[in-house]
Amino acid sequence: MKREPLRESLATILLPLALIFGLVLLLSLNAGQDSREAVASSPLEAWLKLIVGYLAAGTEIAAAVVIGGAVIRGIIKYVRQLFSRSKQHFNATESIRLQLGRVLALGLEFTVASDILRTAVAPTRQDILNLGAIVLLRTLLNYFLEREIQQGEQSRLAEPERS
After folding, report:
1. Closest C-alpha to 146, from 95, 102, 97
2. Contact residues for 121 (Cβ-Cβ < 8 A; gap 6+)
3. Which of 148, 125, 135, 102 is nearest to 30 (CA)?
4. How many CB atoms lie within 10 A of CB 103?
5. Which of 25, 63, 86, 107 has the fewest CB atoms within 10 Å around its CB?
6. Three-state DSSP class for 86?
7. Burial readout 35-44 (b: 16 or more C-beta within 10 A, e: otherwise)
8. Residues 134, 140, 143, CA angle at the centre, nearest 5°?
9. Model pTM score
10. Sign (positive or negative) of CA dihedral 73, 79, 84, 87
């Protein structure tokens, strides 16, 4: 296996640590805040909040449909693979896992978009801090998920070369 350059290995260590530190910092700032609801200052702002609320709910539904569909498809493929007499059990399972990982990453992007939409109209400082913490947490999850997918794909591509 090739050795990673020093810069890449530092990035793989420092990026998650920086994201975790940022998340802890945002949560500590968030803990000291009181949660007061901002009152809509105009009828237009109230309508915008209503429309954006529906858009955000639609985005969350889209994320649930995408992830739910992938989970059902993965279960069906896995059950089929269990009852088949194929000798490529590990390869098929790894393939299902990688496909599910890709869809989970897409679902995380939808949920981040939903959170951004909810904060788009007249955000308070509390809303922005909450959004920052949520986006940092989901970015951290997405980062590790993408790394695992890349490692799985590399090992899957390297396997036929060994044969």
Report:
1. 102
2. 45, 48, 49, 52
3. 125
4. 18
5. 86
6. coil
7. eeeeeeeeee
8. 140
9. 0.68
10. positive
Closest CA to 133 of 20, 53, 56, 3: 20
Give residue-wise pLDDT tens across range 125-139: 888 888 888 888 888
Question: How far is Cα 23 from Cα 29, in angstroms, rounded to an integer?
Answer: 10
The answer for 115, left when phi > 0, alpha when psi is -120 to 50, beta otherwise, is: alpha
Dist CA 147 CA 113 (whole Å):
21
Single-letter amino acid code for the residue at 137: L
Distance CA 70, CA 151 (A): 21
CB atoms under 10 Å from CB of 63, counted, come to: 20
Alpha carbon distances (Å) from 114 to 55, 69, 150, 157: 8, 19, 26, 35
Nearest to 26 by CA among 144, 145, 125: 125
Which residue stretches of the chain have pLDDT < 70? 1-4, 7, 10-11, 23, 26-27, 30-40, 86-90, 160-163
